[in-house]
Every structure is written in C-alpha cells, then in structure tokens.
Design brief:
Largest sheet: 18 strands, mixed
Radius of gyration: 18 Å
Strand content: 35-45%
Shape: globular
Distance between the termini: 14 Å
CATH architecture of the largest domain: Roll
Order of helices and strands: EEHEEEHEEEEHEEHHEEEHEEEE
Number of strands: 18
CATH class of the largest domain: Alpha Beta
Oligomer: single chain
C-alpha cells in the first residue's frame, strides 16, 4: 500500500486586512523537494493567481518557487512571497523578530514582520524605454505616455488614474507579447486621500488574465515614480476588481543592486492538507 504524504496548504488573502479582498495566494509547506510537474498540477488545482512552494533549507531559510493558476513557473512573485512569510510567522515556524529569508530564481529575498503588516525586501527591476509593439498598442487601446520593459513585464504609463481604472484591454492581443505581463500605471488623481500612483497588471500569457494585487510590479514602478514624483515612499492602489493598497519604499534609488520595500497585510482564510 502506497503511503500518502500530507502537505500542509493554506490560502491567504494578501495586501488586505479582511477576508475575500486583496489577492489570494496558496502556500504549500514542503518537507522535501517535489517534481516540477507536481507543483504545476497543484497550482492549477488551487487556481489562485500564484501558488508558493516553500522548502526548508535547514538553516532557517527556505527555497521558494511560484507557479501560476495556469501551471507556469514565474521568476518573481510578490503577493505569494508575502503570503508565505505570513504563514511561517503565523504558525510559529519563524520568530517575528527574525527576517524570513527565501532563496529564489531572483536571488535572496527577505520579509520582515511589522506592526502594520509584513514588508518585503525585493530587487529593483528597472524598466528601460522601448518602442511600443503593435500588439501592445492594440491590446491596450488607450493613449500611451511612456513604455518601458524589464526582464519581467512591459511597463506602460497612461494619461490618468481614470484611464487606468476604465481600461478594457484586449487580452488575446496582450497574450502574444513575449513577457510575463503588462503593468499599466498613472499618477494618482487629485482627490481626497489620494494615492501617489495607481496600477493594474495583466498576464494572459502566463494564465492570469488580471492580477488582483501585484507586488512585483512595484520593483519597476517604485523607481519609475521616484524619479517623476521626487519622493521615495508611496501609498499606492491596484485598481483591480478586488483592489489592494500597497506601501512602497525605494531604498537605493535606481542604481544597480537597489532595493524596493513592499508592505502590506494578509489574512489566512483556509488551512488544509494535500493528499496527492
């Protein structure tokens, strides 16, 4: 008789302090390595934008990987990293006075417990100006102020917060772009309690039509808006159907090796065990 290895799995709503808001992520706590195909199938089964797989290294740090709902592995994911840190702190696997350390495809990442949530320490991912591809122009169907690209995404500034909120992209056109996704952004409108900037993120190529809250987008947007707004700390809003507020701090400007601090809260809404 084949024994079943039970794998703890949690679902966490991230960049929110209430259930059923923000961006849901699944977190699997592994005791040892699992095949890539298994992780891909689990991510499809969980059907969250991203599922994180955390494997202890034996020195207090973890190996961390992320797969989308389409079963595609991605090189960097913010909200699922915050969800993983939240689970580790919540379950007492890490002391809240210690930083969580994750070894990933994007190098060593860290997360720290704060009184107002968890703050991620991520690398800057500068977007450099590029000529907008026809598929990007057709896919957005809105006036574009600026287009850049980093190793992950296209970054597009639109004319206003309203333009970002009201955008109705052609996802089939965006899916032809050979990038992880497309982030659109604009300066916050002049309104009571304004946000410094707003954004949305679309990733049909990796199986995520629209992400609810995208931490890694700020690896590019933090330094982008730091230059234009002449400040380094921001209160931002992702104008997705569920929405999410993210605190952003640019620590080392736009120099190579710079860091972005991405902060938010999280709520566990489900705990269980995988039996396959």
């Amino acid at each position: 008789m084949t024994s079943v290895v039970q794998v703890p799995v949690m679902q966490v709503d991230v960049f929110t302090n209430e259930a059923f808001a923000g961006n849901p992520a699944a977190v699997c706590l592994l005791e040892g390595s699992r095949p890539d195909a298994w992780m891909s199938r689990v991510a499809k089964e969980m059907n969250c934008a991203n599922t994180a797989f955390a494997e202890p290294n034996g020195d207090g740090s973890y190996r961390l990987r992320w797969f989308t709902a389409g079963g595609v592995e991605v090189a960097l994911c913010g909200h699922a990293t915050l969800a993983t840190a939240h689970v580790l702190y919540e379950q007492g696997k890490l002391n809240r006075t210690s930083a969580a350390r994750f070894h990933t495809q994007s190098g060593l990442l860290a997360a720290e417990w704060r009184d107002d949530g968890i703050e991620l320490d991520f690398p800057i991912e500068l977007a450099v100006p590029v000529t907008e591809p026809d598929a990007l122009r057709a896919g957005l169907g809105a006036p574009i102020r600026w287009v850049g690209r980093n190793r992950l995404d296209y970054v597009v500034e639109l004319e206003s917060e309203t333009a970002v909120r009201e955008l109705k992209p052609d996802l089939s056109a965006l899916a032809t772009l050979e990038v992880r996704g497309v982030v659109v952004t604009a300066r916050g409108d002049d309104r009571p309690d304004p946000f410094d900037y707003v954004l949305r993120w679309f990733g049909p190529r990796v199986g995520v039509a629209e992400d609810m809250v995208t931490g890694t987008a700020h690896c590019a947007l933090g330094p982008y808006w730091a230059e234009r707004l002449e400040k380094t700390a921001f209160r931002t809003y992702q104008a997705s159907p569920r929405g999410g507020v993210v605190r952003v701090r640019v620590v080392a400007g736009d120099a190579a090796g710079g860091r972005v601090k991405i902060g938010g809260q999280a709520v566990t809404i489900l705990r269980g065990e995988l039996l396959a």
